[in-house]
Amino acid sequence: MVPNEKTDVLVIGAGPAGSMTAKWAAKSGSRVLMLEKRQEIGSPVRCGEGMSKDWLGEVGIKPGRWINVEVEGARIYSPSEKVFEINEKHAGNEVGYVVERDEFDKQLAIDAANAGVEVRLKSAAVALLKENGRIVGARVKEFGETHEIRAPITIGADGFESQIGRWAGISTNIAMRDMDTCLQYRMTNVGCDVRYCDFYLGKVAPGGYVWVFPKGEGLANVGIGVQVSQVQNLADARTYLDRWIAAHPEYAKGKKIDMVGGGVSISAPLKQTVTDGLMLVGDAARMIDPLTGGGIANGCIAGKICGTVATEAVTAGDPSKEFLQRYEKGWRARLEEKLYRNWLAKEKLVSLSDETFDKIIEVLAGVKLEKLNVHNILKAVHTKYPEVTKEFEAFL
Prior knowledge:
The chain is of the alpha/beta class. The chain has 3 domains: 185 residues, FAD/NAD(P)-binding domain; 129 residues, D-Amino Acid Oxidase, Chain A, domain 2 (2-Layer Sandwich), CATH 3.30.9; 50 residues, no CATH class. The strands form 4 sheets. The chain has a 7-stranded mixed beta sheet with strand order 7-6-15-16-17-14-18. The chain has a 6-stranded mixed beta sheet with strand order 9-3-2-13-20-19. α6 runs antiparallel to α7 and α8 crosses α9. The longest helix is centred in the last third of the chain and has 25 residues.
């Protein structure tokens, strides 16, 4: 029988947000134990593998061998395939590097371990421990045996399907319109341009987009995200993606060598991410960008704040919900306005016709915007097609 254990900070989930939280908690002086239910960190990959790069220094990540390609920018295609080119600085949190996601996740876990974190694989939380209404750790199953790990601070970093939040009594409900179902092939012998990440909008991907992220010459991730509420069943994502590939000769000639699928939240962030003794971070806290579906940067940025506050709470001997508001306020000050604004924009964009998308991309392709954001895009479109922006008056 495995004996019960104690630690200062227990992190459940070893994705980017979990590793970043664990690393910063350890760097701040806590004893940290990080659990991963799978036997290998980073696998299976469920990600388009594109990310921006301007945030890496903020959280202490150094570029490494996990980078496949550094792109110049993005190309956004309208339904009639008018194209708008944008440099990587303004292209959003999916563009900058195309990476080997499993290698990236492993590197973040290595960084956490080097900071003093104990990492355990094939260790699954099966319940939270509660005393007097406060979370005091978790019941964990490791190699067939169950035992308790007690900690004043527990972190739920267990991804989009997070159970930790639900077990803690935090509302993590999500509407069908706030979920995408995604499918991606890795394809070889394709005619991708390694300078750009490409995005295709409109009815080719209802409520979402098709993406092409180059992994090297002739090699690319070709994927799709479609809004769950706009398709009959989850398998429709494959139908739409196969149809798009067949219509594009430079990809129709390619060969599929890998396939991944899964769900992504495109919701507003949770209204509550802390309770007594517990914090949620990353995808578990719905920190994914609702416009792009990208969550790596946001999860890591929030993870640094989360880990730092975790140690502050341990040091103060105060794991109360009130003390943990430091994290709630910190990550919201850094991320919430953009997340909420992009969720509102997503709510409008999913209702647009292909004709409207064509008009928007046509305008953007013909103007120079010093700073690319939702507000400036709408102002530019408004000058030529004021009827298009009528639905977006709140943003203007």
